[in-house]
Amino acid sequence: MIQTDENDLLKSEQNKTARSELTKVVREFVDYSDWCYRENEGKYSREKAQANTYITGKKKSSGSSSILIGGLKFGWNFNQSWGGAKLWSKGFVNSADVNIVYDRSDESQKELKVEQYVHESQANIFANIPLGTQSPTDAQIEEIVNDFWEFEDQINDSKKEIQDKVSYKNQFSNVLLESKNIIFRGAPGTGKTYLAKSLAADIVSNGRSTATKDLTDEEKSRIGFVQFHPSYDYTDFVEGLRPKINDDGSMGFELQDGVFKKFVSQAQANLDNSQKSKEDIQKEATADNKMDAFFENIEFGGDTFSTVNGSKFTIAGIDDRHIRIDVPGNKISDKVSLNIHELQSMLTANQDFKQVKDVNVFFGKPHGTQQYSYDLALYKKIKIRNTRPTLPTVPPKKKNFVFIIDEINRGEISKIFGELFFAIDPGYRGTTNGVLTQYANLHDDPGSKFSIPENVYIIGTMNDIDRSVDSFDFAMRRRFRFIEIKAQDNIGMLDELDEPKRQMTIQCMQSLNDAIVNVEGLNENYAIGGAYFLKLKHLTFDALWNDYLQPLLQDYVRGMNDEEGIMQKFEAAYNRGYQSAAQDNAERPTDPDGNSH
């Protein structure tokens, strides 16, 4: 009991120290921002920054910062506007999870805030202290620092709760969660794909089951699968141009996401939504309902709408990403594509957008685009619609997503992954480390970057004896953890066979593999795994040898001296294995029920 009291006292003192130290950092950050705005026309001063104790530059990421408080590293960012000399109106002091924001977007309504970054235009606000025209007092800074630690503690408690609850069944589950990317390598038939699917099931079900057949449809949707081959490329995996029939019947091309990018988008949406508040989820649901009701009750190509400048347009069609409109009077192009997600963001924010420049400011763009004038017109029409109240909802929990790449070495890795070499690195996950894709110039926002979120895990499989192993890109090797699977490692899969065939199969496999590794030029990488022998559920031992094992082994020994003699030794070892097991089983005494002992 005394020990517990001493620990509590020590923790309390550590908390006080951490709050005091962070208060000093935030105070200096605020004072520097105030000096820049009051004394230096809002411009950044390197000389002034270098005279500081903590805030010694324009910005510093938390990961590379030397400010260590309460076990957390703290960075900061003043964000110069549009590459100019003036500081952005929001400054941040941040840990990896939470920001303390000094927001002077409106100098008459300044604020101190604690927020959690979600994505470029979305943050969860945990605490807010209105300042008016005044700079924050010491008491207000202490208050926001206390709010910060309270929010940080909540995040840590949530993480710990999740970790404490999950107990995985697969021996490699925690390895994958720690490493993010792993590759199972080994001889043919060692059950690498079987193991990958079992591992994925364990991860997405939070340890409930390692069998895909036991998963719910929602859990299955969080497992992606692709098999690489020599013709597979970047456009299949990431994104590329695909033929499309236009609304007028003509043939064209459109940019479409590949299988991996679609999968990552699904995981990113889950991660983003899990970090939103109930209020934000409710607002988005309401906005979606209004949009659905609007588009269900208009005539595509018939109903006419007008921009604030009087330009007439009709809606030709919509899909998951775009609203296609026709503008007969537009001299540049009579067909315009709008980003549907931008319109959703405007409706969710529920601000009073009156002019196009209001939309520019909302999206942080220095100059407007013609698309924003059409967005504004639709926004005004949709906003006034009356829809049934949206039922209360709660943010979804963060979930794990597992993507399996079977025979990963059979594809041309550098061609398929492209710039994703960087994005899949476990140390560079998240939106702050995105990459521009090869088709970025065709995106609605050419500056938007593609990133791999923290809740995506990648499993690859590869055969060690495949000749394409040697060409496996070294840049990729650094980003994966390689785990060797030997023929004996997955012998448990043979439990699917009934006795006595299971025991006969095990002895047969062991006898054959012993013969293989004793041949000069071959080794354990050529041992044959249990996946081949599972075919004995439906085949005889002779059929398995003639139709599957013999052709494979002939490929092994082709070009060797005495090929025929080696194959005879293999066949003899194979036959000896299962015949010996059959004889052993026949000699065992049985009980009255017929069970052998």
UniProtKB/TrEMBL annotation:
Residues 585-597 have a biased composition (Basic and acidic residues). The keyword Hydrolase applies. GO terms for molecular function: ATP binding; ATP hydrolysis activity; endonuclease activity. Gene3D superfamilies: P-loop containing nucleotide triphosphate hydrolases. Keywords: Endonuclease, Hydrolase, Nuclease. Residues 178-490 form the AAA+ ATPase domain. Residues 578-597 are annotated as: Disordered. The keyword Hydrolase applies. InterPro entries: AAA+_ATPase, ATPase_dyneun-rel_AAA, Methyl-DNA_Rec/Restrict_Enz, P-loop_NTPase. This is Endonuclease. It comes from Oenococcus kitaharae DSM 17330. The lineage of its organism: Bacteria, Bacillati, Bacillota, Bacilli, Lactobacillales.
